[in-house]
Design a protein that fits this description.
By secondary structure, the chain is mainly alpha-helical. The protein has one domain: Fumarate Reductase Cytochrome B subunit, CATH 1.20.950. It contains 8 helices and no strands. It has helices at about 5-10, 25-45, 60-85, 90-95, 100-120, 130-155, 165-195, 200. Helix 5 (about 100-120) packs across helix 6.
């Protein structure tokens, strides 16, 4: 077996820790900004109350609206940066593998590795980059739809026939985003506990010595 094959085999060994390329400062800033916006919108939605006709909206309501508009800008910047950033970082092909044979191949390989480990009752490898990137892509799509439908509802005329469907979609995707955020954070914590310095790569946390 060649040295390259040895390295690949070690990377996919059960429980192997993958030292991924640290993210650029721009990626970290945009990721953190989007995270804060999404968390604000999700938790803020728990306390906002839509004003009745003739009533002035409370501050949680207009904060939700204005931060949502800021979120549209943040997501737009993230999409643009994904197109422009260094090729060593995750690109669109890995975020959305559904549209290329190469993307599907990597995703299927990761899924097969994951299911084989689970079937054998052993800890899966932490080196499932294709699967992780695809999940990140789904989160980006969900955030985009959530922000886009909220902004559309905000700017559409009050008598627009698509205003209500926009808000219905907004609420549905927001529920999916709750599940995504909870699962995403939980898996990140598990990775950290298993020795993968995911927070050091994505944010500015101190890595484990």
């Amino acid at each position: 077996m060649s040295p390259a094959q040895d390295l690949r085999a070690a990377s996919y060994a059960p429980g192997a820790v993958h030292q991924a390329q640290p993210k650029s400062h721009a990626t970290r800033v945009l990721h953190l900004f989007m995270l804060l916006v999404v968390l604000h919108q999700l938790f803020g939605s728990l306390i906002i109350a839509r004003p009745r006709p003739g009533e002035a909206p409370g501050w949680p309501y207009w904060m939700h609206e204005y931060v949502g508009i800021v979120g549209v800008g943040a997501i737009t910047l993230f999409w643009l940066w994904t197109l422009l950033r260094n090729s060593r970082e995750t690109g669109l092909v890995r975020l959305f593998p559904w549209f290329s044979a190469k993307g599907w191949s990597g995703l299927v390989a990761d899924l097969r590795s994951l299911f084989d480990d689970l079937a054998a009752l052993r800890m899966p490898s932490l080196h499932l980059d294709n699967l992780a990137s695809a999940v990140h892509g789904l989160g980006l799509l969900a955030a985009t739809v959530m922000a886009g439908t909220g902004a559309s509802w905000y700017f559409l005329a009050h008598d627009s026939v698509i205003r209500r469907p926009m808000m219905t979609t907004h609420h549905m995707v927001a529920n999916l985003m709750w599940a995504y955020v909870i699962a995403h954070v939980s898996l990140a914590v598990i990775h950290r506990l298993l020795g993968d310095d995911v927070f050091a790569r994505m944010f500015w946390a101190r890595g484990r010595a």
